[in-house]
Amino acid sequence: MIGIAYMELMGELEGDPRDFWTSIEWAAETLTTTGYGNDTHWREPLMVVFVIVVQFLGLFLVFLLFPVYVIPFFEERFEARLPNALPRSRGKRYILIYRYGPAVSALIGELARYQRRVVVLEENDATARRLHEKGMEVVRAPDDLNELGFDHIGHARTIVANGRDQDNATLLLIARDHGFEGPVIALVEDPLHRKPLTALGAKAVYTPDYLLASALAAGASRRISPCLPGIQQLGEYLGVAELRIHENSPLAGEVLSQTHLRERHRVVVLGMWHRGRFVPRPHADAPLHPGDIILVVGRPSVLEGLGRLASPLTRRGPIVVAGYGKVGREVRQMLEDAGERTVVIDRMPGEGVDVVGNVLHRNMIERAGVASASAVVLALSSDSECLFAATVVREFAPDVVLVAGVNRERAVHRLYGVGADFALSMGKVAGQLLARHLLGE
User: Residue 403 contacts by C-beta under 8 Å, 6 or more apart in sequence?
Assistant: First the structure.
């Protein structure tokens, strides 16, 4: 149509007629923005306006119409279609995980290690396809869970609900309506929603933010019992601790066999962090450098004394909490309930924030009193920001106890590499706790 219009207008306005194929060639060159051949000059204003309109139409087609409509059409036509109904058991019942995220990433790894079949029910299309490309079994969940095929829900062994609290409740009710009688474990954002989900039939309901805050608070304060099931306690009489070797410690510079930790302190060294790399079961001739972190198991009373030996400096200042989101609020509340003095630093002003500013700035660190603090807890929302903040704090105060929490487990070893005394990820907390229930450990 555009080619015919060009052919007619060139004859009527310019007095320089074009044949049909030349006009079609001009229209193709213009609409695809590839450029012109010989037709590049026009005299009549109406003709010039026509050419300009067609040029803008070409831009619209190339930069808007094709990416929005044409390319997605071909992608949808030729890419692998994800199933939209729950699968059969195929002789091996599976664990259904609703919504992928940091809180269940470690769990999936643990289940794969024990060769448990996992099916992920995911609403986000990009996430679902990324997991599918990694070889995971994925079912694409619709926006309305009632539209999902639940006919084979009975083939699932357990359901782990990791969506929004209201979506978890919906999934639980739909699963029960379709005859699912197995256990449902839910992760919720609001602790007040634990009881309603339990009343609906969930076997266990956990709040990962609260668990992470508990671990961080226990790592920063000796007044809080660090007994978190599956994380820092091995049975009733044994505990596990990560202890950083201070440069003034009598252990610094010693070879592991010369410390006689097993004979004198009756603890077992399970591994050690050296320059951000974890070494399991280190050799007897492994040296202990300042900044190394040893992972030991023993009686809690013995571990406490060994902690003073590894880091002999004592501080009586407040505990600085950097970040006042969900985790930061819980950490501060737990510390103050235990009788600790706290100083909270956050970008945004508000009730409970003592220093308003960025923890990455040196003057903000000075205002918060990090130099004289007994410990610093990093409860920031971004893993990259937490890693950089740990570097800044450690450079400013080499001796302060540094505790950090992150979302993803792969950031933990980097935090140890920059000198954190205790680092824990949301995925590790939730993953280990869930694995303990699902694997019967």
Answer: 216, 219, 220, 375, 376, 377, 378, 420, 421, 422, 423
Distance of alpha carbon 27 from alpha carbon 149, whole angstroms: 49
Tell me how far apart the alpha carbons of residues 48 and 14 are, in angstroms, rounded to a whole number: 10
Which tokens is 175 given?
A: 């699963």
- State the Rg of the chain over Cα: 31
* CA nearest to 83, candidates 44, 128, 47, 118: 128
Which strand ranges, in their side-by-side order, compose the sheet holding 184-187?
137-140, 118-122, 94-98, 156-161, 184-187, 204-206
Q: What is the dihedral of CA 247, 390, 273, 100, to 10 degrees?
A: 170
The per-residue DSSP string of 392-405 comes to HHHHH-TTSEEEEE
Place of tokens 């003592």: 354
The 3-state DSSP class for residue 159 equals strand
Full-prediction pTM beyond 0.90? no
What is the rounded CA–CA span in Å between residue 115 and residue 106? 14
Determine the Cα–Cα distance for residues 135 and 118; give it in Å rounded to an integer: 11
**C-alpha span between 123 and 77 (Å, rounded):** 20
Span 391-424, pLDDT tens digits? 999 999 988 889 999 988 888 888 988 888 888 8
pLDDT, tens digit, for every residue of 181-199? 999 999 998 888 989 999 9
Query: Beta 184-187 vs 204-206: how paired, if at all?
Result: parallel
- Judging by DSSP bridges, how do beta strands 94-98 and 156-161 pair with one another? parallel
H/E stretch holding 130 reads helix 125-133
Taking Cα atoms as reference points, which of 158, 191, 210 lies closest to residue 329? 210
Let me know: does 243 contact 310? Beta carbons within 8 Å: yes
Nearest to 345 by CA among 337, 333, 334, 353: 353
Torsion angle (degrees, nearest 10) of CA 374, 378, 384, 388: -20
